[in-house]
Amino acid sequence: MILAPSLLKVTPSFTLPGTVMQFQQASGFESLLANGAIDVKLNEFDKYAYVHYADIRTKASVGQNYSNQLPSVSIELDFAQTATYLHQVNATWNRRDVGSVSQWNFDLVNAQRHGMRQGIYQNIRNAALYGINPSLGEGILNTVGATVVSSIPADPYGNSSVTTIDNGWMAQQIINIIAAIQVRTLQSGRPCRFTICGPQRVLAQYWETQVVQVTQYQRPGAGTATIRENADAITKFANGNQIDWVYDDTLIGKGPNGYDAVIFALPEIEKPYASVINTNEWADTNPSISDTIILLADKTAPTEVTMPIALDSTSLSMEMLTTSGWALRPECITILGAQYP
Question: What are the residue ranges spanned by the domains of the chain?
């Protein structure tokens, strides 16, 4: 549908160049994915994607004498799967539509193209965060095995909402969540890239406005640093970690207890290793997948198909195949319920 009323302007007059465009939030959800982007590996006709898992339980005999009965290696192989989904959209126009819009200094064909891409990209964002079929555990928020913290732990004064909690306490909770993820994934002491994704009204408090309060005792960032600056500085000093803070307002009300959801994620991990006596020797058996959260796609941008149709009109269709957001290692995700205000 195109709404382009006729223009009536006084002459002489001046019209500002450009257009006041309606803005939509540019979601930062891709930062939750491995390497900060979708993973283009699908064929356009694939219906499912699979991943293989391998686990081991090993014992070895030890003693001063030769043993007649020796333990053996117990290897368990398994797989996981997720469905693929085709995102599609269509637009049609004729030369009269193009003419009616041209008086507004507006390119109708280009506008349709960008609008269609936005529709598909918003679908992909929803698939990444919430899944197309949430009941199947699709989407980052529905990951089976992810750690869920139902609410921010109350500070010493009993406050636990975003706007009332002690800022130094909140910075410490963020650091604790990040440290817990590193412990669960055996990444302690290694520099890692973390992503924290949440609504603006929550993260903006941590990012811009909430300065760590001055108290009668010294604590990091007191009087000078925001919650984000404090958490960034401490985790970087301790392990060389990097934290990417990104926004997505669709997470409002999507967390535990109906609170806003804040997602803490470790999108990539490294294989733990030791120099000579390697107690993680098993991991060298096969190349290990370092990506922990992925969204597979058949291409980086939608395929376009343009064709003429009846009544001197043109039809433009776009399509793109993706999976939902897929956590290969659920232990890399923590979902926090943030009460606002």
Answer: 29-60+71-338
Distance CA 339, CA 336 (A): 10
Strands 260-265 and 296-297: unpaired
pLDDT in tens, 74-93: 999 999 999 999 999 999 99
Q: Reduce the DSSP state of residue 247 to 3 states and report it.
A: strand
Q: Rounded CA gap, 220 and 162, in Å?
A: 20
Question: Rounded to whole angstroms, how far apart are CA atoms 333 and 79?
Answer: 20
Q: Which residues contact residue 211 at a Cβ distance below 8 angstroms, ignoring those fewer than 6 apart?
A: 167, 221, 223, 224, 225, 226
Does the model's pTM come out above 0.85? yes
CB atoms within 10 A of CB 312: 9
Task: Spell out where the chain has E strands.
Answer: 39-40, 48-58, 73-94, 147-149, 193-198, 242-247, 260-265, 293-294, 296-297, 303-309, 313-323, 326-327, 333-338
